[in-house]
Amino acid sequence: MRFTIFLLVAVALAASNNSEFASGKRATLASTSMNCPSKGKLREAIQNLSSGSRTRVDRAHRLLIKQANASPGCRREIIQTLMQAMDKPKLDFGRDTHSYHLWLSSAELLGDLNATEALDLLISHLNLTAPIFSSSMNHQPALIGLIKMGPMAVPKLSEALRHNTDPQVRYSVIYAIATIGGESARTALKECLISETDDCAKRLVRVSLDSFDEQGNIKDRMAWFANFTCNH
Hints:
By secondary structure, the protein is mainly α. The protein folds into two domains: 28-113, no CATH class; 135-232, no CATH class. It has twelve helices and no strands. It has helices at 2-35, 39-49, 54-68, 72-86, 97-112, 119-124, 141-149, 154-163, 167-180, 183-195, 199-211, 221-227. Helix 8 (154-163) runs antiparallel to helix 9 (167-180) and helix 8 packs parallel to helix 10. The N and C termini lie far apart (98 Å).
């Protein structure tokens, strides 16, 4: 009889503990979900990012960074939404300034989020440029995002340098790798010289390697930028 009572008490306690665990898990999930932006908030953020208004862009940037840090699920949802909004067919920054501003703001945001899952998207859009050249390279938004990503972008960029058949893309990749700098960048550029057949690309690589200090960082950015051309 005492064993039966003990067993019933144990079962009751276990059920209570399981119930408390399930409630706690539900509460945690609910809390995480509450921290993630709703679809409406994400649409609003996308609109702000494409507005071209520095105030609205900065506000959306801060909000999405904060919410992406709430949980891996939130981060994943925000990155996927940004990539879907950016990845539209027949993009033309000359005729569609909203798309240009969205790309410029979102590429920078993806860089700040270290969104390596967006590397292929950014590299595949390196030729997407605004009509007006900017020495800050803002006319080439994908480049901004790749550089923001830093050394973690170098392996993918190295792959593009070896296999992409578009010379203009490879020139931009060389620019990105050299700007990111570091030992991995130096190695990637040295390896490029072994297989590269384009004379312009070879010159850009050599100019960049000659501009590095001992740590693989550009010593004089203005001098490097002035020589980063094939017109010599």
